[in-house]
Amino acid sequence: MSAAFQDWMKTIQAGMENDMSAYLPAASALPQKLHDAMRYALLGGGKRVRPLLVYAAGNLFGADAAALSRAAAALEMIHAYSLVHDDMPCMDDDALRRGKPTVHIAYDEATALLVGDALQAQAFAVLAEADTLPPARQVAMLRLLAQAAGSAGMCGGQAIDLASVGLSLTLEQLEQMHQLKTGALLRASVVLGALAGKDLDAAELQALNDYSRAIGLAFQVVDDILDATADSATLGKTAGKDAADNKPTYVSILGLEPSQALAEKLRLEAHAALAPFGDNAQRLRELADLIVQRKA
Amino acid sequence: MSAAFQDWMKTIQAGMENDMSAYLPAASALPQKLHDAMRYALLGGGKRVRPLLVYAAGNLFGADAAALSRAAAALEMIHAYSLVHDDMPCMDDDALRRGKPTVHIAYDEATALLVGDALQAQAFAVLAEADTLPPARQVAMLRLLAQAAGSAGMCGGQAIDLASVGLSLTLEQLEQMHQLKTGALLRASVVLGALAGKDLDAAELQALNDYSRAIGLAFQVVDDILDATADSATLGKTAGKDAADNKPTYVSILGLEPSQALAEKLRLEAHAALAPFGDNAQRLRELADLIVQRKA
């Protein structure tokens, strides 16, 4: 990782922390407990992979900074709400997230439910308030976000994930599940970032879809590798959870070394997809590297 | 209630059933259990008060039918998701809704959580796909829907409601809670219906806000009256639940007869607010009457 890339990441991560705080009601605004818990769920942690993808894709076409910030915040809010609901007792029942107690532990279950619901609404509000965008493109971005978040995207992937506990999935079924559960939102991050710059032609959209598919799968393969090999303190969440929950993973289906080889292959596919964009795609390339080479 | 008004309602209710079915993925689409449960939660019941308000307000300015259908469906999806989550064990823990087992009873808790999450996303998708609207007005409608659904609207009202169990609220605090919990979405229904017709000037918006405030409160006052006086079979949900849950209501604070007088006063206020719109507001007037005079 180059120092320039690390500086770029830190700048965006710090900027997002400020911007997302400003896009949420103050912790003192009524109802206080809900707003306090929304801030707890969204701020102060996380790798901000989706915002980084938004900004990196924004670099392709010189997108407006205000629009990128709102698109990035909207995606991170959807992601954060999904983690809050996913950690609840009726789903994964997890007590630790980003090194902190999960929302239903730190507050209570009803608050966790409402925090997730309100963060999803806030995501759409923040993007709908992006008044520097041409309205027609803004509508397209809102549509894409909604589709990626819903039953044909993230929520659908969660449902398949739930239904697959204890089953032996094929590699193809596992990929399908992850393309919805994680991939849809990662793809939306890339495409929304690009759309913050300009309308996309078919070839541009195809290249971005190919890149997104590769990093989406790579992200999940590496998650599975880390879940099997790293410890909870490093991950900031409970390690070994998938095996304990009897969930199918790349490591359980392919084994560890073939999973590592697959991640590397997907990294190269991501690079190849970016060829048409030349130097403007440098940050997207570095993010593909980061996703595959990360340790947590 | 005139026969013409009843026919109008039936036409819209039947039309919404068809349209909302078409706006949801098929029950056979993967993941099937989630899509089946989404249809169970949204279709086949309910008074469709929010869609009726959308269409009635659309009458003010001759709004396009396709845009009204999408706005109405979006509002009903937000409403339906809030009921699914509200009925869950960590919230109101209710087993009966619209005369049927609630979603977490008919399916399971994890599915109920995902159904609510996916219906919220679908609401924004359906409205974002309303391609007969001028994009700038469509963005304004999406913004308004998101604000009404979030922590400064419905979710915020739910949080205040949860926090108020067992407390003795003043009439003012009770009104504030309901203006968020129910009022925000009813107001959004009226304003979105009008916006499906044209941009609103300040006087029009003020008149619609006044109408919405009156019917929003009237709706809740009548809900409290019915909860105290009707039986579960008539209501299609558990009667006497508020008293059993030790929740403050208009009836518990004001008494039954003063609550009935308040509902009638609010009905007249709703009528007065509509004066500037003349005959085009007939359906909105009839809906105010319906909200106050309903028996379930």
Automatic annotation (TrEMBL), chains A, B:
One of its GO terms (molecular function) is dimethylallyltranstransferase activity. The keyword Transferase applies. Its EC number is 2.5.1.1, 2.5.1.10. The keyword rRNA-binding does not apply. It is an enzyme of class 2 (transferase). Keywords: Isoprene biosynthesis, Magnesium, Metal-binding, Transferase. It comes from the Bacteria. It holds the Pfam family polyprenyl_synt. Its cofactor is Mg(2+). CDD domains: Trans_IPPS_HT. One of its GO terms (biological process) is terpenoid biosynthetic process. GO terms for cellular component: cytoplasm. Belongs to the FPP/GGPP synthase family. This is Farnesyl diphosphate synthase. It comes from Pseudoduganella violacea.
